[in-house]
Amino acid sequence: MSNAHQAFDHWLSTLGPLRLALEGRVGWEFGALFAAQPWLAQSPRGDGHPVLVLPRFLGCDLSTQPLRDFLDRLGYRAEPWGLGVNLGPRAGVMDACLERLEHLHATHGRRVSLIGWSLGGLYARELAKEAPEQVRLVITLGTPFAGDQSDPSELWRLQERMTGESIGLPLRHGPLDQAPPVPTTSILSRSDGIVHWTDSLEREGPITENILVESSHLGLAFNPLSLHAIADRLAQPEDAWRPFERTGARAWLYPALPRA
Q1: What is the spatial distance between Cα 109 and Cα 49, in angstroms, rounded to a whole number?
Q2: Domain total for the chain?
Q3: AB hydrolase-1 domain spans which residues (predicted)?
């Protein structure tokens, strides 16, 4: 890694709460979504399989509408989670998500791809562990599954103390940083102002990978770089998944992952 990358990483790690100021880019990123339409229109077409999109904390289906509209235009059956505002992993939420997954799988007769933004990515990963036979692949956007609190028992106890309710994610699934048994992509940003990028680092393996973009946390679900990467991942043939290729212009648009 270059000295410039090392200096950038050190700078980001020392900002602490000041990193929140980086979220001010979200308006620019939303504008860039419209400017990038000619490029995004060249994204690979979908095969019509269902895609369930799970929102971030305090987000709702309206917040994922731009992403779902983009996927619909590519030919996918992009579906909202349908549970209102995401108020956190309370008791019953995972059961409702599982019912939604089972319904889409039965209705379309095909395995469902899961996209989870931030906290929604935790739901997506755990759903894929619970029902891997119904899930085609998982894509997370700025999801904090690999931080110091990756032991779910600690999160469970904290949630219960704060709200009096269980967190609703099954303990039997093991640590949050344990990847699902399906192709899994973590899209992350080193300049994420809410979730530190190292907390979204997937251990790379035969069916797991990380894709680095430069984005705010609040813009990850409609940043043009995120959308293009999502389209590329969803277009992988079922049961013939291959890692994201950083060749040509992509090597510039999607920089190599620095050391954590």
Answers
A1: 9
A2: 1
A3: 58-164
Rounded Cα–Cα distance for residues 236 and 240 (Å): 7
Range of the domain at 193: 3-253
Taking the C-alpha atoms of residue 252 and residue 244, their distance in angstroms, rounded to an integer, is: 14
Amino acid identity of 101? L
Q: Is residue 258 part of a domain?
A: no
The alpha carbon of 44 is separated from its chain's Cα centroid by a whole number of angstroms, namely 19
Whether 118 contacts 56, CB under 8 Å: yes
Nearest to 61 by CA among 235, 240, 221, 231: 221
Question: Rg for the chain (alpha carbons), in Å?
Answer: 17
pTM for this prediction: 0.86
What CA–CA distance (Å, rounded) separates 111 from 104? 8
Asked whether residue 239 is domain-assigned, the answer is: yes
Whichever domain contains 55, its CATH number is: 3.40.50.1820
To the nearest 10 degrees (0 to 180), the angle between helices 224-234 and 26-35 is 60
Domain annotation covers residue 21: yes
